[in-house]
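Q: Give me the 3D complex with delta-amino valeric acid.
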Amino acid sequence: MTVEAVETGGSRPVVENRRTSPVWCHTEWDPLEEVIVGIVDEAHFPPWHAALPPVLPADQHDTFRRDAGKPFPPEAVAAANQELDEFVHILESEGVTVRRPEPIPQNVPYRTLDWSSTGMYAAMPRDVLLVVGDEIIECPTAWRSRYYETLAYRPLLKEYFRGGARWSAGPKPELKDEQYDSTWADPGEDGPRRLVVTEFEPTFDAADFTRCGRDIIAQMSNVTNAFGIEWLSRHLGDDYRIHVFEFDDAHPMHIDATLVPMAPGKVLINPERVRRVPDLFKGWDVIHAPKPIIPDSHPLYMTSKWINMNILMLDEERVVVERQDEPMISLLKNFGFTPIPCNFRNFNSFGGSFHCATLDVRRRGALRSYF
Ligand code: DAV
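A: Here is the predicted complex, encoded as structure tokens.
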């Protein structure tokens, strides 16, 4: 691959090989050119498993036990689909190329040497695929129900590879019983952090990482272990520094409703989970996310209401925000951003918002240090 030095930052040269790759993304805020938006087609409740209770909202455990392996309610799927269409339309009118995965059957049982499962959905590309620079990485996810989830993206992955991207995958996990702490019990909101994944083998979801150029912020969670972070760190090599922080979150899974870098020098934080902003962000504007306004009556199968923070930056100013989330819209306006409202509350029911539902495949910009 042709690698061309375009600037020198710190002690290491910064490289620009963008011309040879359709995959190119260093931050959460560089101008967005191409994005994958997930789909809710075929969405099924996963089989009940020990990895679920540490992250599902308490009031959803009974539903997940009862409906394990069944399709999500068709009216919920239809309502989410309508919002996805609106989101795609908005992205396209803002000049972004939108790609979609191919639906794969989620109710066909599969098995390994140790266990069997069915799938869930292809709604959240953010969880299972990580883009760093010109590389797209398939994540070794900890949930058995997500074992084959990246198959929905294979046509795109092959196309990007043929176009010049690098394509890799974390070590295929076995996900044996040893991967899960069978004695896990809820520590309670103020209890010590207790994670259900063990260090048996590396697992991680991409959504436990957030990119600021050479610095990548990460957390351990109920799907991402230290072994997984170490694998990724060595895989990415000396060009990147992974900073692992622990937040006040008793049920962590994915960092993107906790700490969201929005632009150089601007970070959105969850005021309940980030009681002390990491020193790394010294000198940055810290924007406290407003309390979510999603009513209790609205079903959220797999996420807390803080999913209101799960915004998508189109560049350093334009930001896609849930249309009904007036407090977030006015706060971001006050900080000089340009919010673009989109209905997404019905999609939120499936466990994510604009950041979870997308994978930014290509953003203009070079690899830099922001700290
Ligand atoms: O409440 O932290 C995070 C996003 C899930 N994909 C939460 C949910």
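A quick observation: The pocket of delta-amino valeric acid is lined by residues 207, 253-254, 256-257, 303-304, 306-307, 351-352, 356 (CB under 6 Å).
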